[in-house]
Write a structure and sequence with these properties.
With 254 residues, the chain is mainly alpha-helical. It has 2 domains: 1-129; 131-254, no CATH class. It is 83% helix and 3% strand. The chain has 9 helices and 2 strands; from the N terminus they run H-H-H-H-H-H-H-E-E-H-H. It has helices spanning 2-42, 45-75, 79-82, 84-105, 110-129, 132-152, 159-184, 206-225, 228-252, and strands at 188-191, 194-197. It has a two-stranded antiparallel ribbon with strand order 1-2. Strand 1 (188-191) and strand 2 form a beta hairpin. The longest helix has 41 residues, at 2-42. The protein is globular.
C-alpha cells in the first residue's frame, strides 16, 4: 500500500510535466500560425493599415502587462497566484517585441518572428524536461544564434549591431556568473537576498563555461571582422553547440 502511494505521488509531477510540454507544443504551433496570419494580413493592402495600427496598440499594452506582472509577482505572497505572473510576463514580452518589430520594420524580419516564437516555447519545454543547466546552456546558444542571424543580414557600425552585441554579452555573462556562483555553493545561488536552488548539488560548470567562451569568441570575431558571411557560419556554430548540448544533457538525465 505504501509503495503504491509513493508511486502515485511520483507519477503526478511527471503527468503534469507531460501536460505542460504538450500544451507548450500546441501553443507554439498556434502562435506560429497566428504570426503567419498577421504577416499575410500585413502584406495585403486592404488590411495593412489595420495591422499597422494594431501593432502599435499591442506593444504598448504588452509593455503595461510586463510591468504589472513584474510588480504583482514582487508584491504578492501567495505562491499559487504568483506562479501565473512569470507566464504573463514572458508571453507579453514575446508578443510585445513582435508587435514592436512589425510596427517599425514591417515584414522585414518575418523569419525572425517565427524563430522567436519557436525559441521561447522550446526553451520552456527544455525547462520542463531537463535540468536548469541545459536551460541556461540553451539560452546562451539561442541568444547568440539570433544575434548571428541578424548579423548575417548585414553587419556595420550602427545601433542594431551594438544593441545585439550588448544583449548577447549580458546573457553570456549572466549564465557564466550563475554557473560560477552555483559551483561554489552546491548548486545554490543567492540573488536579491534569497538563496535559490538552481542546479544539483554536484553541478559542474565546465560545460557552460566552454559554451559561453566559444560563443563569446564568435561574437568578438564577428564584430572585429565585420563580415556577414562569417556571422552566417557562426549562426550554424551556435546551432551545432545547441545540438551537442542536447545530446550531452540527454545522457545526463537519470
Amino acid at each position: 500500500m505504501g509503495n503504491n502511494t509513493k508511486s502515485n505521488v511520483t507519477a503526478k509531477p511527471r503527468d503534469l510535466t507531460v501536460y505542460k510540454v504538450c500544451g507548450a507544443f500546441v501553443l507554439m504551433v498556434l502562435s506560429m500560425l497566428g504570426v503567419k496570419c498577421v504577416l499575410d494580413a500585413y502584406a495585403t493592402m486592404n488590411t495593412f493599415d489595420i495591422v499597422y495600427r494594431a501593432s502599435e496598440l499591442a506593444w504598448k499594452l504588452c509593455a503595461v502587462l510586463c510591468i504589472a506582472s513584474a510588480i504583482a509577482y514582487y508584491l504578492l505572497r501567495k505562491k499559487a497566484v504568483r506562479k501565473v505572473f512569470p507566464y504573463v510576463f514572458v508571453l507579453s514580452a514575446l508578443v510585445g517585441l513582435c508587435a514592436l518589430d512589425l510596427r517599425y520594420f514591417w515584414t522585414e524580419h518575418a523569419a525572425a518572428l517565427y524563430m522567436a516564437h519557436a525559441a521561447v516555447y522550446c526553451l520552456y519545454i527544455i525547462f520542463c524536461l531537463y535540468r536548469s543547466e541545459f536551460f541556461c546552456f540553451s539560452l546562451a546558444a539561442i541568444a547568440s544564434g539570433f544575434c548571428f542571424y541578424f548579423y548575417s543580414k548585414g553587419l556595420g557600425l550602427n545601433a542594431r549591431t551594438a544593441v545585439l552585441a550588448i544583449l548577447v554579452a549580458l546573457v553570456l555573462a549572466g549564465v557564466s556568473f550563475l554557473a560560477n556562483r552555483a559551483a561554489k555553493d552546491k548548486g545554490r545561488v543567492k540573488l536579491f537576498g534569497k538563496t535559490l536552488k538552481l542546479f544539483h548539488a554536484r553541478f559542474n560548470p565546465t560545460v557552460l563555461y566552454v559554451a559561453c567562451t566559444v560563443l563569446a569568441c564568435c561574437l568578438i570575431a564577428c564584430l572585429l571582422l565585420g563580415s556577414a558571411l562569417f556571422a552566417y557560419y557562426c549562426m550554424f556554430a551556435a546551432i551545432a553547440i545547441e545540438l551537442i548540448g542536447a545530446v550531452y544533457y540527454t545522457f545526463q538525465l537519470k
